[in-house]
Amino acid sequence: MNGLGIPTTRSLAVIGIRELIYRQKPELAAILVRVADCHIRFGSFEFFHYTKQPKSVERLADFSIEHYHNDIYNEPDRYRIFFRRVLTLTAKLISKWQSVGFVHGVMNTDNMTITGTTFDYGPYGFMDGFNSRYTPNSSDTHGRYAYQQQAEIGFWNLNKLAETLIPLVSADELQEETKQYQSLLNGFYREEMGRKLGLSILDSEFSELTQEMLQLLQSQQLDYSNFFRHLANNPSAMDCSIELRSWLDHYLKLCDRESISHDERKKKMNAVNPKYILRNHLVQRALEMALKESDFSEVTRLRILLENPFKDRPEIFKKYNIDADFYSQDTPQEFLGRQTSCSA
């Protein structure tokens, strides 16, 4: 996520333990050492709220503002502004997830921070073929955290945070703030998709183009990430169906409205559309080599690729025996839609 330029907590280390834990099946235990700009969750406020400790909610809010939003500390309506900022950061985060096809898998209030990042990278995944109903979490049988639900779940979580702040901000004022969420998220998402498509005129025709594209990606099960790379390289030469060709004609028409060359657009698009993503079958391959053979070379290769997922680095790739074509290809058919569990 950091390589993609998306706000995130980070993993400092994974420490293996030679004992078994039991989830769906026996597995070796491990401890993840996490680093983050902030460990205060929406759920931190909920804990004090549901245990009827309003003074602790206030102290936590004051601490959060002092350390993470210090410029508003002396404002008379600082709690409302604080909530507005958390809402805005959350909308921006989820818009970025949606734009890269990332599905978190377990978006409860304990995994959302007040600085617009997330915890608990467990049953997550990047979409292969576009599927708005995709959930990477094998235990999410009702699709609560599916791709198409993430914006709504973000809204749900923010409302839960708002409930805890009612002693500090009136319910009406908080409701006014939450009403802004969808339009904020839509705006952020439109900007992200504009960058992905190399377009800067983000009018109603652009929105129509984007919706048509997502429908085609789903109906034709095209690889989400690679679609944008192919589109950047040579859209006129793409081998595609009649329906997609019609969409491409529409896309090229919108490109013609803007005064930049194809080469310039390609450069901009390839700077925001990753060539390499963390596909589940690649993760599984790395895990099996590490666990069964104590061979961490595949983990190293993935780390190098994902540090900068937008471009090739021939000298480094040669040093670590990285086959660019292998790691950038569409997910093989037999691995499409694979799910993981909370013990992933």
Secondary-structure map:
Blueprint: E1 10-22, E2 26-35, H1 42-50, H2 54-68, H3 78-100, E3 102-103, E4 125-126, H4 150-164, H5 171-178, H6 181-197, H7 204-219, H8 224-233, H9 242-256, H10 262-270, H11 280-293, H12 297-307, H13 314-319, H14 324-328
Antiparallel strand pairs: 1-2, 3-4
Helix pairs in contact: 1-2, 1-4, 3-4, 3-5, 3-6, 4-5, 7-9, 8-10, 11-12
Mean pLDDT: 94
Number of strands: 4
The largest β sheet comes out as: 2 strands, antiparallel
Low-confidence stretches are none
Defining traits:
mainly alpha; two-stranded antiparallel sheet; two-stranded antiparallel ribbon; 14 helices
If you had to describe this structure to a student in words, what would you say it looks like?
This protein has a two-stranded antiparallel ribbon with strand order 1-2. The chain has 3 domains: 40-190, no CATH class; 199-270, no CATH class; 280-335, no CATH class. The longest helix has 23 residues, at 78-100. The chain is mainly α. The chain has 14 helices and 4 strands. The mean pLDDT is 94.
